[in-house]
Amino acid sequence: MDSALIWEMVIKSLVLILALLTGFAYLTYYERRGLARIQSRVGPNRAGPAGLLQPIADAVKLIFKEEFTPGQAYKVIFILAPIITVIPAILITATVPWGGTVTIGGREVMLGIADINIGVLYIMSVASIAVYGVVLAGWASNNKYAMMGGLRSTAQMISYELALGLSFVGVILLANSMRMTEIVEAQRGLWFAFLQPVGAVVFFFATLAELNRGPFDMPEAEQELSAGYNVEYSGMKFALFFMAEYTKMVSISAIIATLFWGGYRGPFIDTMPGLGPLYMFIKIFFILFMMIWVRASWPRIRYDRLMDLGWKILLPLSLSLVFINATGILLNQMWLIPLLSIGAGFLAIQAINLSLRRKENAR
Amino acid sequence: MGSQTPWVYVGIFVLVGLFIPIAAIAIATFLGPKKPNAIKQSTYECGIETVGDSWIQFKAQYYIFALVFLIFDVETVFLFPWAVSLNSLGIFAVFEGIIFILILLAGLIYAWKKGMLEWA
Q1: Which residues is A194 bridged to in the sheet?
Q2: Are A239 and A20 in contact (CB under 8 A)?
Q3: Are A183 and A171 in contact (CB under 8 A)?
Q4: Contacts of B3 in chain A (CB under 8 A)
Q5: Cα(A205)–Cα(A199) distance, rounded to whole angstroms?
C-alpha cells in the first residue's frame, strides 16, 4: 500500500468526521428551531443571522465552563465514559457509502471510508458498544439518579437491539449481501422501504429507542431522574454526551437512508456519481425531521410499557418479518412481502391496542 | 493485502476518530477555570445530603432481561450468514434455519409464560 493511499484515507476520515461534527452542531440548531416552530415559538434567533451562529456560541461557552469531578466519583471511568460514548457514534459511519466512485484530480476516490463485506455486522457490533459508555457513566458518577438512569438506559438499549438486529436480517435477506454498497445497488428498482414497509417502521422505532430519544427518552426522564446518567457531568464532558447523542442521530439517519431509502441513489446518479452525497444529505435531513417531529408530538411512554413494546410486540413482529421475507424470496413472489408484512403490522397494532386496555374492568 | 485492505481504512478512521473526543477534553481542561470546593464536589441530590452508598442492589429483573437478551442477540448474529446465502442454500439448510428460529421462538414463549418479560 503506497503512502498516497494512506493520505487519501486520512483526508477522507477527517472530512467525514468534520462533516459529522458540523452536522451535530447544526442538528442542535435544527432541532431547537424545529421544536420551537411546532410549539409556535421562535427558537434561537439572536446569535448571527436567524440564529445561525448559535451552535458556535454554545461550543465556546462549553469550552470555558468549569468542569468538576464529584469527590465520590470513580475518577478514571468518570473521564473515560464520555469518550467511550462518543467514539462508536462516529465509528458507526465507517461502512456507510456516501456515493459511488468519483474522479478527483486523476484519482479514483470511493465516497465512503471502507466497503467491507460484513458492513451490516460491523454497524450492529459498533452500535452495541455505545451501551458501555452509558452504563459506565451512570456507575462511575456514584449518584443514585445517574445509577438508575444508566441501568434503565442499558435495559432499554439491549431490549430494542433485538428488533434492530432482526430488521437488519430482513434487509440482508432482500439484498442477499451484507456489503452496504450491494444493499444500495439492490434498491436500484425499488427502495426497501416500499418492499418491506413494516420493517422500515420497526427499524425506525428501534433506533429511536437505541438513541434514547423521545418518546423513549426514559434514561433522561427529567421529572424522575433529573438528568439520568449524565447528571454529574458538566462542561465539556457533558457536551461530549450531547455530541454522542446527536452525532449518533446523524449516523443512524444515514444508516436508515442506506438500508431502506435507497442510500445515495437518486435521479441521474449513474451519469453523475458526485450527486450521491447530496441525495444522502436530503434523505438524512428528512429522517432527522421525522425524529424531531416524533419528539415534539408524543409524550414519553411508561417504562413497563416500553419494555412490553420491545419484547412482546417488536421482537415477535420482526421475527415474523424475517419469515415473511424468506417466504417471499423462496417462492420468488416478491409481491407477497409487502402484503403479508402490512398484515403482520396490523396484527401488531391490534396487540398494542389490546394491551393498552385496562386489565381490571373498573365499571 | 486483498480482503484485509478495507480494515486498514477502518483502522485509520478509528485513530482519527479517537483524536476528536480526547482533544475536546484536553482543550477544555486547559481553558476552563478550576475552583473546586467541598460543597461543589458533593454528590448532587436535589440539595439534600446523600444517604448511604449509591452502588446499591437493584431490581433482579434487569439481570433476567440481560440473560434473555443474550440468547436472542446470539440468535440474530447466527441468522446473518443464513440470510446472506439463503438463495444458494439447499432447501434442507433453509428448513434447518427455520427450525432454529422456531426453537428459539419456543424459548421466547416459555420466558413469556413464566412471567420473565413482566416488568412491574
Answers
A1: none
A2: no
A3: yes
A4: 117
A5: 10
Query: How many Cβ atoms are within 10 Å of A15's Cβ, its own excluded?
Result: 12
**Contact residues, chain A, for B7 at CB < 8 Å:** 114, 116
Count of domains forming chain A: 1
Task: Judge whether A357 lies within some domain.
Answer: yes
- The C-alpha cell at A147 is 445509577
| Domain extent for A311 | 69-361
Q: Where do the H-state alpha helices sit in chain A? A: 3-38, 54-63, 75-91, 119-140, 144-175, 180-186, 192-195, 197-210, 222-225, 235-260, 276-297, 303-308, 315-330, 336-356
Cell of A50: 436567524
Helices A3-38, B5-31: axis angle to 10 degrees equals 60
Predicted confidence pLDDT, tens digits, chain A (363 residues): 577 777 878 888 888 888 888 888 888 888 888 888 888 888 888 887 888 888 888 888 888 887 777 777 788 888 888 888 888 888 888 888 887 777 777 677 777 777 888 888 888 888 888 888 888 888 888 887 888 888 888 888 888 888 888 888 888 888 888 888 888 888 887 888 888 888 889 999 888 888 888 788 776 666 667 777 777 787 788 888 888 888 888 999 999 998 888 878 877 777 777 788 888 888 899 999 988 898 888 888 887 788 888 888 888 888 888 888 888 888 877 787 888 888 888 888 888 888 777 666 544
CB pairs below 8 Å between A and B: how many? 211
C-beta atoms surrounding A183 within 10 Å: 24
Chain B residues close to A316, C-beta within 8 Å = 105, 108
Domain-located, residue A14: no
DSSP state of A311: I
Domains present along chain B, CATH in parentheses: 2-113 (1.20.58.1610)
Query: A101-104 and A107-110 as β-strands: parallel, antiparallel, unpaired?
Result: antiparallel
Residue A348: inside a domain: yes
Helices assigned H by DSSP within A261-302:
276-297
- Residue B21: which of A66, A83, A122 has the nearest Cβ? A83
Cell of B28: 477544555
Q: Which residue of B has its CA nearest to A64?
A: B32
DSSP readout, chain B?
Answer: -GGGHHHHHHHHHHHHHHHHHHHHHHHHHHHS-----TTTTSPPSTTSPP-S-SS----THHHHHHHHHHHHHHHHHHHHHHHHTTTTS-HHHHHHHHHHHHHHHHHHHHHHHTTTT---
With respect to residue A96, please indicate whether it lies within any of the assigned structural domains.
yes
Q: Which of A91, A161, A177 sits opposite B17 (nearest CB)?
A: A91
